[in-house]
Amino acid sequence: MATPAEVLQVAGRMGVKGVVRVRCRLIEGREEGKVLTRNVSGPVRIGDIILLKETEMESVGRLHERR
Questions:
Q1: 35 CB contacts (<8 Å, ≥6 apart)?
Q2: Residues whose CB is less than 8 angstroms from the CB of residue 46 and which lie 6 or more positions away in sequence, other chains included
Q3: What does the alpha-carbon distance between residue 61 and residue 67 come to, in Å, rounded to a whole number?
Q4: 10-55: per-residue pLDDT in tens?
Q5: Model-level pTM?
Q6: Is 49 in contact with 40 (CB distance < 8 Å)?
Q7: What domains are there in the chain, each with its CATH number?
Q8: What SS3 string covers 3-16?
Q9: The pLDDT of residue 6
């Protein structure tokens, strides 16, 4: 079952496929209020509600920014 989460911050874009790193707060579930970092594909803005399939694992890896 998917868990809804609110997007708090858009940390940056990764690659050419439209993947965005976001920080989000879980709205429901047993870990309500927990803030996670996730990779999301597609357009997303601050305040959007996204559905997370998994809330256990954190997104790991570096964000490569263009200079």
A1: 8, 23, 24, 25, 26
A2: 7, 8, 9, 10
A3: 19
A4: 988 887 888 999 999 999 988 899 999 999 998 999 999 999 988 7
A5: 0.76
A6: no
A7: 3-52 (2.40.50.140)
A8: EEEEEEEEEEEECC
A9: 96
